Amino acid sequence: MSAGVALIARRTIRASAPRLFDAWTTPDELRAWWGPKPVTCSSAEVDLRVGGSYRISNLLPDGRIFIIEGQFRVVERPHRLVYTWCAGEDRQSLVTVRFEPRGDATEVIIVHEQIPGDTIRDSHGTGWTGCLDGLERHFTPA
Prior knowledge:
Radius of gyration: 14 Å
């Protein structure tokens, strides 16, 4: 993987680091919150171990399916995940997610690196913001 560009997205959510880590890595929970609206997660597979893979199917409003997949490089429950990211035609990039306790909440910090250019970075930034919106809604009582 080459250098590329990076982005950082963050959100403080009223939930514990272990709960957020589990929501990020458990297929049933991923399906409940993943994806920037109006995209939804139609399926998720997670083999949560170093060297294990994941695959997330995003259902787009027009009915197309967009696949994101990769391999876990670091799994440190409940504080950190590092995994490769391959989406569509994009070359492989790298995602680090940290879960940092902040009193009765946790700051979720996403660092997405080795993105091939500014346009793709901006698109990923919109996607990550939408995912954090969904994760926050997942933990906000109705």
